[in-house]
Amino acid sequence: MLIRPLTLTDLPALQEFYNSLTEAVTCFFQPWPELTEEVLREHLTDGESGKNVVLGLVSAEGAVEGHGFMWNVDSDKPVLGIGLREHAQGQGWGRQLMEALLAEADAQSLPAVHLTVLKDNVRAVSLYESVDFECEGETKFREEGDSLCMVRRRAG
Ligand SMILES: CC(C)(COP(=O)(O)OP(=O)(O)OC[C@H]1O[C@@H](n2cnc3c(N)ncnc32)[C@H](O)[C@@H]1OP(=O)(O)O)[C@@H](O)C(=O)NCCC(=O)NCCS
Fold first, then answer.
1. 108-123 tens-digit pLDDT
2. Which domains does the chain have, with CATH numbers?
3. Which of 13, 21, 72, 78 is deepest in the core (most CB within 10 A)?
């Protein structure tokens, strides 16, 4: 498997990735309220222009097995998201994808990267804390106060 930027040519594979996600994944990872081809096209277009960072964990066959991104890196609040298909989880790929995103954040000298995570997503919270994200408050994903706002500030 390979971690690499996704481009518009990956649109069908990214659609297939999102269409294949089981409820065990989507209960934690749902970057858009409504997922359409147009939404993904804009996301990838913004990746190509540099507004977003859009990475994929891609199999030898070209299937997207995981997706990590940072939205609006040109703003004062870049937002990070990450999700893997169930069968790709628990093998270190999430950490590698996260490290690739944070390496890009540091290469672009982003002062801070933000994310939200459901409080009961123990695995994700543990990963985020291990790469220096800190809790800075609570927010709503589905219900009031069900999620944490986390921030990772650039060292130095
Ligand atoms: C959260 C997610 C991205 C982590 O990726 P992963 O490939 O499964 O995790 P990794 O194997 O890279 O493990 C990374 C870290 O997660 C934590 N972790 C893994 N399994 C864990 C478990 N069962 N319980 C607690 N923490 C766990 C550990 O801190 C681990 O660190 P280590 O490298 O020192 O072992 C992935 O599981 C996923 O996509 N989950 C569903 C979608 C989701 O929750 N996305 C995040 C939304 S905010």
1. 999 999 999 999 999 9
2. 2-153 (3.40.630.30)
3. 78
